[in-house]
Amino acid sequence: MEKESFINITDTYNKSNITLVEAIQTVPVIQRKEGLVITFSDSENNWRIYQFRDDLSQFSNEDLWVDLYDFTPYIKGLEKRVRRIRKESTTINKSINSRITWEIL
């Protein structure tokens, strides 16, 4: 039997209004694998989607499931890049301005 890469817990197992822990516990042992993505309807009737990114011995650890709807890590990474680019841009502008001032004098 081939293991699924994506499981809709709500549809496949008729479970909705559940937590991440309940969704994880619903996955049959035979279907568990690294990189597995699950989706389910949570207690607020919102669709959630998570990916497991660790060793199978840690499958039940909810902290090792990544919320694929959470863009915070990507946004923080972009903020750091923007700050770095602004800093580099400021340094370049200062250098250009000092050269322009020098040439005018």
Uncertain regions spanning at least 5 consecutive residues: none
The gross shape turns out to be elongated
> How many angstroms separate the termini?
80 Å
User: How many strands appear in the DSSP assignment?
Assistant: 4
Which percent bin holds the helix content?
Answer: 40-55%
Look at the helices and sheets and give the structural class. Answer: alpha+beta
Query: What share of the residues does DSSP label as strand, in percent?
Result: 15-25%
The gist of it:
It contains three helices and four strands, in the order βααβββα.
Give structural notes.
This protein is an alpha+beta fold and 105 residues long. The protein has three helices and four strands. It has helices at residues 9-13, 20-26, 72-104; strands spanning 6-8, 37-41, 47-52, 65-67. Strands 1-2-3-4 form a four-stranded mixed beta sheet. A hairpin with a 5-residue loop joins strand 2 and strand 3 (47-52). It is elongated and about 65 Å long. The mean pLDDT is 85.
Note the topology:
Blueprint: E1 6-8, H1 9-13, H2 20-26, E2 37-41, E3 47-52, E4 65-67, H3 72-104
Parallel strand pairs: 1-2
Antiparallel strand pairs: 2-3, 3-4
Features:
alpha+beta; 4-stranded mixed beta sheet; 105 residues
